[in-house]
Structures are given as C-alpha cells and as structure tokens.
Amino acid sequence: MHRLLLLFTFIFVGVSSLYAQKKYPLLEVGINEASKLSQEKQKNVLFSPLSLYTLNSMLANMSVGETKKELIGHLGYTKDEIVLLNSYLIDLQKRLGEECVLKSALRYSKGYALNSSLKKILEENYEAEIASGDFIRKGEKVKDEINNWFYENTDYKIKDMIESISPMDKLILMNALYFKAEWEHPFDTKQTYNKDFHLNNQKTVKADFLSKTETVKCYASGSTKAIILPYKGNYEMLMISTPTFSFDAITAMDMKLKEKKVHIEFPKFVMNSSLDCIELMRNMNVTIPFQSGADFTMLFKKSEKDLFVSKMYQKSFLKIDEIGTVAVAASVAKVSRSLDMKDYEEYIFDQPFYFIIRNKMTKEPLFIGKVNNPVLN
Predict the structure, then answer these.
(1) Domain of 285, in residue numbers
(2) Are 49 and 34 in contact (CB under 8 A)?
(3) Partners of 219 in beta bridges
(4) 3 with 307: CB under 8 angstroms?
(5) For the chain, first and last CA: distance in Å?
(6) Are 11 and 160 found together in one domain?
(7) String of b and e for 302-337 (b: at least 16 CB within 10 Å)?
(8) Reported pTM
(9) How far apart are CA 28 and CA 43, in angstroms?
C-alpha cells in the first residue's frame, strides 16, 4: 500500500458581523477544529488552522469522488466548488501581510510524473515549490533536504521535522508558516511580576505575569471574560476564559465586545507542540483520505489507486512576552500593583484560558491555543 505523507509546521513569535461561512470559511472551520482540542486539561494546546486549511485544500485538489467530497465539505464548500476554494486560498494568501510568511512545497518519488493540471494549480494558486526525489535509493538525502527546508522556513526553530523516508512513500506535502508581530502597545517589563496560576487539578504554579492598564475591547459575563490585544499591523489576539469554546459561543461573545479601560494580567509563556492531525480530522468526521480506498487519482499522470494519507502532523513553537518578539529578552521583576487599580475592572487570566491570533478585519484565525499551564513548555 503506497502512502502520502503530509507535513506542516508554523512558528509564532511574540505576538456588521464578519462570520459569513462562504466569505471566510477558515473562520468557522478553524474554530470548530479547535473545539475538538479544547477538552485537553493538562497539556498546553497549540495549532494553526491556516496551516491545516491550506494543506487540506492542496490535498482536495489531488482527490476525486468521495475522498474529494469529504475534504471539500470539511473546508466549507461542496464537491463542485473546488474553483471557489482555490480562489479563496489565493485571496487569503494576499491578506497575510508582511507579518506572516506562508510557504508550501511538494516532493514526490522519482519515476512518477505529476498530473499537469494539478501541477499548474499548485504552482499558480499555492505558489508551491515542486521537486522529485529518489525516495528508494536516496531516502536519507531526501529526508535531510526536507528537514533543512523546514529549518530554514521556520527561522531555524523547527528541527528534524521528518524521521525517515520509506520506499512506500510517494508524496510529501509540506507547509511552513512564520509569524512575527509586536504588540501595538508593549507591556512595561517593570510591571511584570511573579504570581500563582491556578491549574485544573486545584494546584498552582508560579508564573511571570504581564501587567498593564489600557483601553481595550473586552467583555465579561458570569464565568466568561474576553479581551482583544492588538498587534502592530493586521493582527490581534483574542484572549478568552470560558467554560464553552465553540464557534457559536465565540461569535456571540465577539459581537458584545466594548471598549473600556481595564487592568489586564496574563502569564508569559513559551510553547512547543506536536499535533497528530489525522486524529483531529477523524474527530471532524473526515476519514476516507486516511484509509485504504482513498482516491487520489488526480495526483499522477499514471493513475495510482492504492494511495492514502499515512501521516499528517504539525509541529509548532510559540513565545509571548512584553514586546511580542522572540528577539527581545524581557527582564522579569516582582512589583506590586499600584493603588489606583481599584478604579478599573480587572481582566486577570490566572487559570486555563484560550487565545486566538487572528486577522483584525476578517477574524480568520492564524493560530488557536489553550494555556493549561504557562510554565509547561
């Protein structure tokens, strides 16, 4: 049984309703995917909906029949709307801005020839770098080339993305997303202090908390609270503490955000994460591409009927500090809050919370995460 291997990674450094599914399908798809991961109560959760959406879109272009129908449906379209999907990805990439760099690539086994129309779509719509390699006799060399590609395209953050190349592997899809942004209003390092963060198991850990008083968009009701912290440029971070993480809940909450001067505290944190995306996709009821019987006959000029996706995973790195960039080493000092804090409503995230890094205008999510323990790297 021949296999397709899908690899992708991303780096995050630093740091009228628009919820129309057909206009920005990544918005609903990404949050629905994240809701499947939100039940984790011990480990930190981090993934890129944009990276996964792009990879699945490329995969949809290689498939036919029920395989294609299932992938297209998951991406927010029908089996007849592959042209609309590709057009959306073109527009999406144009909106990324200078803060975000998305790279795609494809390596296929020597001796095979890609379908000409597919090759054109991947090069023109996805700007994919396409090349063949000797997977059978020079698998170790191909592996090193792929790992170097990831290392270079993630600002040297992700190493050893792939462990080996098997003679049974026929195609490797790759995706790297690098994002770097500074806060629109940086935090003062002198206001960073050490305090307790409350874990789900009733225990606490000491963490360094960013702290400031600022006018932001925010919302609080019962056990739900949310704030938006803008970055310079096109992006913002929505930070949420809520018992229910879902598309409907976030949509409703997002429309209730109001500007207000409040006191904000949340922990600095660094995340390294690895995610099995086949398991995630199966939880989203997408199963056909990952089993015998998948149909990827659009892939090669000579039809191959025994291809399926054998691996699909994502590695990531994230760092949030006072400035928002990994290049800045922020000093940490324990200070007391000033007495005038009593005059402002407090938004203190000192227990597990979610965050969404998204486009300010369209709300399309680049990254979604859950912080269960800020000192757990």
Answers:
(1) 2-181+271-318
(2) yes
(3) 226
(4) yes
(5) 37
(6) yes
(7) eebeebbbbbbbbbbbbbbbbbbbbeeebeeeeeee
(8) 0.90
(9) 24
Write the pLDDT tens digit of every residue in 182-236.
Answer: 899 999 999 999 999 999 988 999 999 999 999 999 999 988 999 999 999 999 9
Residues 6 or more apart from 18 whose CB is under 8 A from it?
Answer: 24, 27, 361, 362, 363
Cα distances (angstroms) measured from residue 207 to each of 41, 189, 272, 333: 18, 14, 17, 12
Partners of 289 in beta bridges: none
Distances (CA, A) of 238 to 71, 163, 223: 28, 35, 16
* Beta strand segments in 83-168, E: 100-109, 129-133
Amino acid at 236: E
Alpha helices in 18-77 (DSSP H): 25-37, 49-62, 65-74
Length of the chain equals: 377
Beta bridge partners of residue 370, listed in sequence order: 45, 354
pLDDT tens digits, 296-317? 888 888 766 678 888 888 888 8
**84 and 109, same domain (yes or no):** yes
DSSP, res 336: P
Round to whole Å and give the CA distance between 91 and 341: 44
The CA distance from 261 to 170, in Å, is: 56
Beta bridge partners of 87: none
Q: How far, in Å, CA of 3 to CA of 24, rounded?
A: 32
Are the CB atoms for 352 and 42 separated by under 8 Å? no
CA separation for the pair 221, 283 (Å, rounded)? 31
Q: Under DSSP, is residue 203 helix (H, G, I), strand (E, B) or coil?
A: coil
3-state SS, residue 335: coil
Does residue 317 contact residue 11 with C-beta atoms inside 8 Å?
Answer: yes
CA dihedral 11, 14, 18, 24 (to 10 degrees): -10
The closest alpha carbon to 56, from 223, 222, 221, 173, belongs to: 173
The CATH number assigned to the domain holding 243 equals 2.30.39.10
Selection from 179, 291, 177, 197 nearest residue 241 by Cα = 197
Q: What is the CATH number of the domain that holds 16?
A: 3.30.497.10
